[in-house]
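Before the break, one more example. Copy the sequence into your notebook; we will annotate it together after we see the structure.
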Amino acid sequence: MNAGSPISSISDTARWVAVYRAWESARADALFHDPYAQQLAGERGRAIAALMPRQARSGWPIVIRTKLIDEAITAAIAHGCDAVVNLAAGLDTRPYRMELPPTLRWCEVDLPALSEEKERLLADATPRCALVRIRADLRDAAARRRALRESIGSGRRVLVLTEGLLVYLDPPTVQAISADLLAESGLGWWVVDLASPAIVQMMNQRMGQHLANAPMQFAPPNGVAFFEALGWKVAQMQEIARSAVRLHRLPWFLRPFMFLPQPNPRQPGRGRWAAVVQLEPARH
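Here is what the structure looks like once it is written out:
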């Protein structure tokens, strides 16, 4: 335990992410608007953001990830998605800020303390869909399975989101989550964010002791093939940096790297590669 770090646990990374949503929302050309992010981030979130490596201090990877997942959710709803399950939802505010059908069932699963804090901070906000929250520790296999059964329920085309979660887990835990999801008949899509070993290693090195309480772990050397071997197929894959070019958020000093060949997403090697990946059960 590193008592001197503003990151006391994985839950604090939710405050960090909220900082970047607040910064993006303040832009005249904002890719999304989150009126709650500033309050949710708090002083601790801003302190964590100040620790970021220079290449990502503006939060552009998180901003792009947020936008791409927004788009994936909107597209899934257009294709019949009747429920969204956000595992380790943190301080995400999509049920409040996105244009969603009021009949859409949205279930957030997270630790009791963070869920209660979020409810308190958003007490005056009104969700735009049917929002429910389940308190559970997703590292507890039995609790996770109960939460999935309850959250997916009778849904027929459910999108499960694990934004910013998997990177903090070890591969066996990710494999277990995968198996639990595939056991649910109503699952339609699984949206994950994935980074290469080079990016995770860079983050752990450059943030050093500050990540001692929440080290990044999951970065399979075979990239998306990790999931394909578990029974998934890739329905869509959007690389973060190249999407940042399209959305005009890539810092100028990184633009020359876009002329280099893109790493193989099934064998990224030492390349710095990250993407938002939409998976579907291969049995579909």
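Residues 58-281 form a domain with the Rossmann fold fold (CATH 3.40.50.150). The longest helix spans residues 60-78. Try to locate both features in your own notes.
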